[in-house]
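Posting here for the record, re: adenosine monophosphate.
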Amino acid sequence: MFGKDVEIPFLDKKIETAPREEIERIQLAGLKNQIKAALRTDFYRKKYKDLGITEDTVSTLDDIRKLPFTTKNDLRDAYPFGLLAVPKDDVVRLHASSGTTGAATVIYLTQKDLDMAADTMARSLRAAGCSRQDILQNMMTYGLFTGGLGLHYGAEKLGMMVVPTSSGNTIRQIKFMKDFGTTVVHATPSYLLHLHAAIEESGSLRSDFKLRKAIAGAEPHSEELRRKIERTLGIEVYNNYGMSEMNGPGPAIECVFRNGMHIWEDRYIAEIIDPETLEPVPEGETGELVLTILCRDAMPLIRYRTRDLTRFITEPCECGRTHRKIARLTGRTDDMLIINGVNVFPSQIEEVLLRTKGVGANYFIIVDKNGVLDKLTVQVEITPEMFADDSRLINALRDRLRSEMAALITINPVVEIKQPGSLPVSEGKAKRVDDRRPKD
Ligand code: AMP
Ligand code: ZN
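Prediction output follows.
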């Protein structure tokens, strides 16, 4: 597609194609800076003091292995401001990981951090071939979740015209796509499939649309699914990886060759470890991605265990970028479910069940497809007393569970009430989740 004579899009070609030594020099300086920032936070100060860690602990990049990992649990322990490295007055934005409330994982940013995040995102969008001539319809939820606002600011920074429709309301999405001549959409892969079905249903023609690209992320998807979306919508789909802990959707994206995601190594240090031994895996083998963010003042995160499984792609990319690529994610090491792009831990569902009177001993979670979208069903055993009671009370219990879960996880589950003792009891470790979504 991109022959020698076709120009490959860059936002900052110098840094995107910088020699490895230069990238590594930036990384080492950045890491030392982040250690200094970390020592200004309550959380790391305590942890690092016990271990005697200072910026002088690292004199080469390999010395990063002398630093302990940071986990999602650490983020919860540090809730709400234990990881703040600047005066609170300098913070201009707060985000939180989708689907989690209570002890959520919170991210704070200064104005400079926001500018850096927008710049990283702009670089990603440009690498995916977007430009100021494009009209981007952002179909990701705006709010605490970084997918909406994070991409929005990057797209504006690149000079794209942004239509911030947020998620849902597919009829209106389609109308706006036609009326405004949307050329790029940002959505979850499952929503893109849904969008395609809705476009078919609306009787619209391909010629009604100017759409040429989709930036797809926030949930795992296979190469086959990508191809299917590309085929059905007649567009190019770019895999885009990020997470709120790392400023949202900017850290890694596919370039126009669409074969693995470049991770911006002047702003992130990426390691891939064996989640059991915690040692680095041999280059090119699959393991857990560990990220250190280098471009944030308000909140350092050093050696953060993402729980995401991937591998480095060892072959150089045809685009000429020197920043390494990671392969499409193959899963997670923990039990976090991603349902229509929203992170859900089974423990959150359990939390609602445990605090509700009338709920019995056992429950079961089923994740399935309803058409192209994900569907969450929670089967709940009730107590014998409740079961003997009036059906109106049982219906009220169902409604209450549904609304409390929806409030906690931001997804509307189907709640099925079950007779006491009717759900299978497993011997040994309880199996409480059945993810029936096809792995394509
Ligand atoms: P959040 O913090 O809500 O943005 O969720 C971040 C998580 O979403 C990541 O840790 C991944 O598990 C998942 N995720 C984000 N982008 C992708 C992607 N392109 N492919 C697979 N999973 C993704
Ligand atoms: Zn490339």
